[in-house]
Amino acid sequence: MSHLVIFGLGYTASRIAAALEARGWRVDATGSKGNLDFADQAAVRTALDGASHVLSSVPPSDDSDPVLDRYGDALAGKWLGYLSSTGVYGDTQGAWVDESAPVGGGRRSARAEADARWLGMGARAFRLPGIYGPGRSALDRVRERRANRIDLPGQVFSRVHVEDIVSGVIAAIERDVPPGAYNLADDLPTSQNAVIEHACRLLGVAPPPLQRLDEAGLSPMARGFYAENRRVANGKAKRVLGWRPLYPTYVEGLASLA
Fold first, then answer.
1. How many CA atoms lie within 13 A of 244 on its CB side?
2. Cα-based torsion angle of the residue sequence 222, 223, 228, 230 in order, rounded to the nearest 10 degrees
3. pLDDT per residue as tens digits for the range 201-248
4. Which of 8, 58, 61, 60 is nearest to 37 (CA)?
5. CA distance linking residue 160 with residue 166, whole number of Å
6. Cβ–Cβ contacts within 10 Å for residue 24, how many?
7. Cβ pair 3, 51 in contact under 8 A
8. N or C, which end of the chain is more exposed by having fewer CB within 10 Å?
C-alpha cells in the first residue's frame, strides 16, 4: 500500500488526502484534522519511516520552514511535494510568468526561500495562486457582505479551484514526474472585480460599490494582495502532468458552487 505523510492537513491538503484514501492509500497527517502531532517527533518519524510520499502545505514561519528544520533529515529517498505560492514571482505589472521566471523579489520572500529549499531537496513545488472552492469563494464573500470592488484599472491575478489542485497533485504522483516547480492555475487571469460582479449576477444581487484602495478598510494582508499584478501560465503542468483544469475559468468554477 502506498503511504503518504502530509504536513498541515488544511483546506487543500485534506482534499488531497481524501482523494488518495479513496484510491487505497494510507495517509497520516499533522494538523488539527490529522492523526499526528507535529511536535511528537517519535510518532512523526515512525510515520515517515514507512512513508513512500511526503507532502507539505505548511507555510514558512519566522523566515524558515518548520518542516524542513525539524524533519528534513528524514525525507531522503521519498517522493516530495510542497504546496507553494505564485506569490514567489512578485509583481510583474500584469505580465505572464511561468516556472522559469525569477523568484524572491516580491513581498513573500520567506515563501520564496522555502520554495527554493524544497526544490533543493528534490521536491515538486506546486505554485498556487488564489485558491477558491466550497465555502471559500466570491459567492461566500458576496453572501456575507465581505466582497469588495477596488478601483485599480488593469489589476489582474490568477486563481485555481481547489479540486484542480487535487487533480494536479495526483497527476504528479501517478506519473512520477520529475522534481521541479509546477504552476497550477486556471486559464483566465482576470480582475477580482470581474469575479465579484459575476458572483453577484449568479446570486441576483447588486454588486458592491467601486472604492479606492484606501477606502475599503482592507487588512494589511489584503492590501498586499492588491499590490501585485501578474498572470500565471500553466503550460508546463499541462505538458508534463497531462493536467487540464476541470474549471478552466472562474465562470465554470463559480457555476459549480452556486
1. 1
2. 40
3. 999 999 999 999 888 888 887 787 888 999 999 999 999 999 999 999
4. 8
5. 11
6. 8
7. yes
8. N
110 by DSSP, 3-state: which? helix
Report the candidate in 9, 65, 4 with the shortest Cα–Cα distance to residue 32. 9
pLDDT at residue 107 greater than cutoff 80: no
pLDDT in tens, 55-95: 999 999 977 999 999 999 999 999 999 999 999 999 999 99
Exposed/middle/buried for residue 144 (C-beta within 10 Å: 0-12, 13-18, 19+):
exposed
Going through 57-119 in order, the beta strands assigned E by DSSP cover 79-85, 96-97
Cβ-proximal residues to 70 (8 Å cutoff; 6+ apart), any chain: 38, 41
Query: Which pLDDT score, from 0 to 100, does residue 1 have?
Result: 79
* Strand 130-132, strand 210-211: pairing: unpaired
**Three cell numbers, residue 233:** 501560465
Short-list 42, 47, 60, CA closest to 5: 47
Domains of the chain: 78-257 (3.40.50.720)
Q: In 10 A of CB 73, how many CB atoms?
A: 9
Sorted by sequence, the CB contacts under 8 Å of residue 247 that are 6+ apart come out as 161, 163, 164, 186, 253, 256
Indicate whether this model's pTM tops 0.90. yes
